[in-house]
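To assess whether ligand presence alters the predicted conformation, the chain was also submitted together with FE2/S2 (inorganic) cluster. Input:
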Amino acid sequence: MSSANGNHKGKQQRFPEGKHGDSLEPATGIQAFHALHAEDPSKIFFTEEDKKKIAEFVSRYPAKESAVMPALWYAQEKFGWLSIEAMNLVADAIPMPRADVYGVASFYTMYWKKPMGKTHLAICTNISCMLNGAYQLYDYVKKTYGIGNGDVTPDGLLSLEEAECLGSCGTAPAMQVNNYEYVENLTLDKLKAFLKERGLER
Ligand code: FES
């Protein structure tokens, strides 16, 4: 991953207009963060143990700011996504300017600035994957579930992302699930079987 996973789109845009013509997130930058903020702030806090973990990240680097990526990752794992409050916690725990934390979080798509689906599919449509049928797969999810780039189904079970290179070009097309799991040599049948296995068949 070139972001911790090599997967990034433009700075300030979590989901810029899709290459396939679907524009799904109107606002960008910090206004978008606020617009998307829907978490109860009282539930967003770091325990002493969390603070120790962030301190441990900081201790790994010559410059404390370098800990921002593992710290954001830790916060996302804890809270599910990165609200403004979660990013502020990270900034204060390191400590470093909040704006710098927003800048890092907004640059990398693996950091979710809004709640995503229980199953989040990042389907790569870069050159190797595109040439091996990635758009057939992406379009299948898009049309079958009525979601586009950065969208979540109304039941919150599935979200879709048109991803940049996932570093799996030799086994294209590739899909990343929930930022961790890779599905390679993907075919439409394999994708349908995957969705069925997750109880998401339609
Ligand atoms: S182009 Fe899809 S993984 Fe590299």
